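Hello support,

Our group uses your service weekly, and this is the first time we've seen a run hang past the timeout. The protein is Virginiamycin B lyase. I'm not sure whether the cause is the sequence or the server load. Input pasted verbatim:
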Amino acid sequence: MGHQQSNLQRLASLTALFTLTLSSTSVLSDDQASIVNQLCSSCHGINNIDRSAGYSQVHWQSLISSMVKLDPNSASQISEYLANNTPPNDKRASTVVDGDIELQFTYWQVPTLGQRARDPIQGKDGIIWWVGQWGNILGRLDPKTGEMKEYPLPEGTFPHSVSLDKNLTPWFLGNKNGTVGYLDLETEKFTVFNMPDKNARDPHTGVFDDNGIFWFTLQHSNMIGQLNPINGDIKLVSLPSKKSRPYGIKLDSTGTPWVSCNGSNCLIKVDKQSMALDEIRLPGDQTHTRRLAITPDDMVFYVNSGMGKLGRYNPKTGEITQWDTPSGQYSHPYAIEYANDAIWFNESAKRPETLVRFDLKNETMQSWQIPSKDGVYSGLIRHMRMGENGLIIHQTATNQLAEVTWTQANKD
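Update from on-call engineer: The timeout came from a worker crash unrelated to the input. Re-ran successfully.
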């Protein structure tokens, strides 16, 4: 069985064990605390609990309900244990910058819990697609009706992201089995393309150019790929520096791909004809850039996740400018997007997680603590893209999708 299925099986076994153990007692012992640790660490690092903002029992129970399905007795006792050992705290508190923009959030809870829903994208038809990385799922949401449908992907795919071609066909990137593929919307069948190189293990994030060519990154393989959907031809190139870990990818106004480096202080410009790579070094040995955004005038903005900064690279002059994020060095900005004369990004290491708007005209920032289900501030935006009416984001930990819209505040 695939890695994902074994994870889900282990989670089911631990859940059953935890339920069985609790049935004989109403007080959590050291042994039962160990079971709690095993149950939680089957999906994420146990340090996520230690580093969390902490919650009351009610909020812990709400958070658990968005991750796994437990019987009421088990959910009550595990939430009591967590509330006693990790109560509310401010060790990951964010710094909020006020301004005159007001945000509105609309949330949708995906059907399958524990799937790690991520990377939603909205097509011109209004439909939102997402992938459930841990659940091996491609999902479809109609935001007008709230109707959702989930498609099980080929075994072992472990999808990292989804992109749409010009026909609004959803393409997934198989992060665990070295594949890229798409769902035929008429037959609801998958077509899968395998990487031509055994070292190309982990397709990551992709984007289509105007000619229908699919460009994508392969993070740990240290490669950038190009796929022609007409004939299935795949070309791969390796980055100049080892362990650069190409992550995000965007196109400028000429269709030239730009790539961010999550393992090194660099950006990569890709020649769209030859696939020759131009490496741009960024200041700071601790700099690493998860994702980037490109403005209509082809300024390349990036999140400096390693140093808690927003950066801008001017391809015409080579000038690099960086600004501190509101919450500073350890805020770990992650996702980024251009929308309406502003750059938007999140501070993923803070609780509540924050969404930040950088006004391009006056170079000032405004930020907001991101609301979540029932006051539970445990999410993680790993990717954001502009949709029909606003930003389309997600909260991976709580398996939610969201749309963010904004209005100018009334100062009267």
